[in-house]
Design brief:
This protein has nine helices and twelve strands. By secondary structure, the chain is α+β, with helices and mostly antiparallel strands. The longest helix is centred in the C-terminal third of the chain and has 21 residues, at 277-297.
Length: 302
């Protein structure tokens, strides 16, 4: 199959979940004659606009994948793409990737653009959170940055403030812009993870390890696929369109009344628990490139 196809070059600016991403690179190369070119210099942990420009001159890059840890230099990546490669299509657009770096901006955008999705009450300033806590609302305090390098998931949750005194104690030593505040919904042993690739969507169960005091066995951590209600599926796909995400994941919990509350959104998650994700993402990338090329080849009638 690959002999019949001309070589396609795709750029990657990726520094997280590289095990799964390497499998995607291998699948694309074997089945679609796609070379995924690293736009971060090998052996370097930081992005260089100069190297980025050099690679774009060397290879006819027709598509770019961004998959980043939350770091200060990420803004250099976004600036370079806008300035040097503004016409090259992206898997997830820049604004979406940047938004997903911040919990605050992610939920602010859901509130604005996807009003039919239910989220915990969110507080976008420490004053709002203190007022709510004073009125008896339990507040879960999280680090605002999403994919922090070398930080275990458990450490991304600062704690749950059940009183104003505990709120002040938990937030002591942090700057306001480092934290994100939401209404605490209570304990949920099971959370639901939804993975989206284009129009394809799958939902699985997972143990909420953030609330597990004891280490779970591999058998207990087995993910079970579950059906997803059609209306929720439509709303999640709409979320992707509104935010500019083609490949993404969300976490939600289900209340006793059966109401799904969105508690997390992640651009390009790891997909470790979804064996067919490698082929599906590769298919999606190939089809996106082919569609783009077809659009350029098709004459436009005036």
């Amino acid at each position: 199959m690959s002999n019949k196809l001309s070589r396609i070059y795709i750029g990657s600016i990726c520094n997280r979940d590289l095990v799964v991403f390497d499998k995607i690179k291998s699948f694309c190369s074997k089945n679609y004659n796609i070379s995924i070119i690293n736009l971060i210099k090998k052996g370097s942990n930081t992005f260089s606009a100069k190297y980025f420009k050099k690679q774009l001159k060397k290879y006819p890059i027709s598509f770019i994948i961004i998959k980043l840890l939350s770091e200060e230099y990420n803004q250099e990546v976004y600036n370079a793409i806008k300035e040097i490669a503004p016409t090259i299509p992206l898997l997830n657009n820049i604004n979406a990737v940047k938004t997903c770096e911040s919990r605050r901006e992610t939920f602010r955008n859901i509130t604005r653009k996807c009003k039919k999705l239910v989220i915990p009450q969110s507080f976008y300033s420490i004053i709002e959170a203190i007022e709510a806590c004073s009125n008896g609302t339990k507040i879960i305090i999280k680090l605002d940055k999403h994919n922090i390098p070398d930080l275990p998931k458990n450490d991304r949750i600062i704690g749950i403030a059940e009183s104003l005194e505990s709120f002040k104690e938990l937030t002591k030593g942090f700057k306001e812009n480092e934290l994100f505040f939401q209404e605490y919904l209570g304990k949920y042993d099971i959370i639901y993870k939804v993975y989206v690739i284009g129009r394809w969507l799958v939902s699985i169960t997972a143990h909420n390890r953030l609330q597990q005091k004891e280490r779970l066995s591999p058998l207990e951590l087995i993910h079970i696929r579950v059906p997803i209600e059609k209306q929720l599926k439509r709303r999640i796909l709409r979320l992707g369109r509104k935010l500019g995400l083609s490949v993404f994941g969300i976490d939600y919990v289900l209340t006793k009344e059966g109401i799904p509350y969105i508690v997390d959104v992640n651009d390009f998650p790891s997909f470790r628990s979804i064996p067919e994700a490698v082929s599906l993402i590769s298919d999606y990338i190939y089809n996106s490139v082919m569609l783009q090329q077809q659009m350029y080849k098709t004459p436009v009638k005036v």
